[in-house]
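Researcher: Please generate the 3D structure of the following complex. Treat every line as part of one assembly.
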Amino acid sequence: MRIFHQWVLALALYLALSCEGLVSVYIQHLAIHGFIAPVFVLPIAVMIINLIDDLNVQEYWLALGAGIVADLYFWGIIGIYTVFLPVSVWCCHRLARILPDFWLFRLIVVLVGTSCLTAYIWLILNFMGLATVSAISLWQNLFGNLIMSSVLFGCTYWLWGWLSQSYPFLVDLDAYRK
Amino acid sequence: MKKFLENKKLLMTFVTVLLILVVLAGSVSLRKKRTTPLLIQSFGNDVASIAANVVNFPVSLLSGGATNVHELLQVQAENNRLKSQIDDLGQTKARNAALEAENSQLQAALKLNGTLSGYTTINASVISRSPDTWSDLLIINKGSASGIAKNMAVMSGGGVIGRVLEANAATSKVELITTTDQSANRFAVEADAKAGQKVHGIINANTNNSLSFTQVVDSAKLTKGTEVYTSGLGGNSPKGLLVGKVAVTTKDSYGLSDVIKIKPAGNVSDASVVTVIKRRVAN
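Model: Done. Output below.
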């Protein structure tokens, strides 16, 4: 059971991956009404976890694993989340040490991070010839991302905060308590 | 150059970027070339889809309920429209049965085992979509175990919406017809022009998510509202699947070639249930 406690966060990210795909299906319906926004449940989760728990170096492996699985599941290629998630862990660990322990600063970090991810996906898709996307579409998505990521942050902040503190990845809290 | 090689941080960054590009290019190339994904990839995708199926179940129940209420509100108007068509239905059914029997007899006489228009269908639900708005990729809950293979046509809402890009054991990725992927497979299509002539071409996607009927010899033969079907040529998809209707015929910005814009018949932006089309005649 103690082993299970160490893997709860990984299991939660696995569910976040599924929710991300599902929310994307339903959010796409809003595109008809002119609202275009990417849905980044998994990257937001990884960023919140690492802004709250900035000491666990095992998070790099979790981010890398989640990135590979998500990349193959959503796009069938490796190099989008596989790159972004570990980089975001590195950035969040460093930022968490200098930023005040307050949700508003974390929200700003998440918004900047997801905006960078949107621009990175735009760059990769255009560069690899997987899509031809105009700069106007990038701006529309960046604007939509600010709204969508703020909503997702608000809905999941407490959950990821609780999970990262109660069930840190591959850390046996019971050993500390004893 | 010596300074660059001595700067370890710069060198590491350069090697990392290079490695990322190699992995990206390699995986893109693999996705395009392989008819079936690697076993480990297929396994990973199917495991990831288990939770998606579990989460999707209650959500689809709620969503289905809301759709049912919406449809109930429109039932009177639909009923009136259907009543006006019901008189023709009996006659059409009898004529179809006679034509079908005649068609089977003629095929038997010619010893034809299958034609380009023959196909079977596999129904599936959409369980996920890529989180960005540009990739135009859907994930459905049926895979190679259900008979789905790469490049099969996919329909929803009465028209073609895309084709299968990757078939795992229990899930598949569908690339929408509106994709702007430069190397994506395009549908070979045809339309009935004036005086019963056939016009052939291929379907291309524009950057604003609309479709164009390109490589047409004489677009003047096509009028607004002409239905565009798959031609069955080029393999993969059968003949006679509705792609859309001609919306407008114009010239390109140079005024040289014809641009025929198509209004898609399929439900591209709101597909929750899809039908995968398996062609009877081998490619």
